[in-house]
Amino acid sequence: MTTKTRDLSDLLDANGDVKATHLDNASGTTINNNANNRIITGSSSANTLEGETNLTFDGTNLDLPDDKKIRLGTGNDLEIYHNGSHSIIEDVGTGKLEIRSNGTGVDIQKENAEFMARFITDGAVELYHDHSKKFETTSSGATVTGRLTADATDEKPIVAHHTDGSAVTMGFQNNTSNSNAIGFDGTEFIVKPNGTETFRINGSGNVGIGTTSPNGILELKSTGNTNFFIIAGNTSASQVVLGDTDDIDVGKIAYSHNGNQMEFTVNASERMRINSSGAVSIGSTANSGYKLKVNAQGDSLGAGYMLSDVYNQPSFEITNTNNSNFGQSVLWLQCNRTTTNGSYNFLRVIQSGIIDKLFIRDSGNVVNANNSYGAISDLKLKEQITDASSQWSDIKNIQIKKFKFKHEVAEGDSDSLWKLGVIAQEIETVSPSLVETVKDTDKEGNAVLDDEGNETFTKNVKYSVLYMKAVKALQEAMQKIEDLEARVDTLEGN
Length: 494
What we know:
- By secondary structure, this protein is mainly beta.
- Among the domains are: 1-63, no CATH class; 157-226; 229-298, no CATH class; 389-494, Winged helix-like DNA-binding domain superfamily/Winged helix DNA-binding domain (Arc Repressor Mutant, subunit A, Orthogonal Bundle).
- The chain contains 3 helices and 31 strands.
- The strands form 8 sheets. A 6-stranded mixed beta sheet has the order 13-14-15-16-17-18, with no helix packed on it. Strands 19-20-21-22-23-24 form a 6-stranded mixed beta sheet, with no helix packed on it. The protein has a 5-stranded antiparallel beta sheet with strand order 8-9-10-11-12, with no helix packed on it.
- The longest helix has 31 residues, at 463-493.
- The chain is rod-shaped, with a radius of gyration of 55 Å.
- It starts with 39 loop residues before the first strand and ends with a helix.
- The model is unreliable at 20-29 and 299-305 (pLDDT under 50).
């Protein structure tokens, strides 16, 4: 092959670099004869620079085929190429790849100018998904739009800390100015709705709601009314279960939907129940309508006791606070025996270790230890005191009767069944003040009705007043006797 030698000074600029704009002056010239690396001009156009199969420059575009690289740097550290599928900028050296801008920033875009990432000079870094901004750095940190997911095998996929050791929290904020936070204050976990702490788990595992220093495993605190809700399904039970490491459910407080009742369990057995009407049963799961039912039958404790070691304080007190409902009984003692027996007691009062003091028998007899009956009668309690008028006529007209009570008729005809007394309706015609009429009520305080639906009443005789009438009449009789004796003495003397 014949090599043509030519002066190429017109292809060089002042620095000795090749001027591609003047390649037309080197038409048909081979600069390098090495195969596939020869630079030839004028093969198809006077303004075309070709490196045979590896390079083409037509004055506008510089073209390289796939896998052919532009290498920059003494050690070819930077490579720019297309591998047939992807376009690649690769730093293969020991340094770092830097993209610099002296303008307003650097944008990474799709061909239709849709942003994928933006790096704004002295400003934010923005990352996009499908032309929608999802991440942006700010002067105070970063803003994420949408859900942030941390997926890692490490137990701490997200780590936040303050270099000064102060509390670290994550904030949650809506479009208003409120600020909600969750995080750690040292070793203690805290929750701050709207900037105010309401929940804390301290280093001991104690949980505090409404307090920053819980004193127990769980403490709920409020300056106002405090509510603690346990809500179950509408056919299930809500319950608090108490136990120990050996028995996890020996104690229980439960609300049962089916019975609409509260149940209290001790030692794995129900010991008390409050039914839907408010009736309380102790030692029994059935109440039968009583406000309070205590059942000790079969209990190893035997009889029940209520004791108090406070001087001059009642051990047991029953009070009717409803002044308008005098028909209700404050204390109702009931024995379900079908017959009476004077040896059984409705009430027994004992001075411990000394003697029985008072009995109320199932026969209705009241017995006390010293055969006495007392009434509060102090002068300081009374006013408008005058001498009583004559009671002679009232006592004279009172009829004393012999009778049996209806429930005793079937028991026979023994002398003990016959009573001596008065009839209230008869006494009422003689002296109405001796009779008290009371509306009949059941143990719930409801009126008792007869067969026609009318309320029934029971008349009671005030025997304590009757006794005083009898004493007054006796005094009058004694005075008459004394007067008669005086007259007799006078007549006999004459």
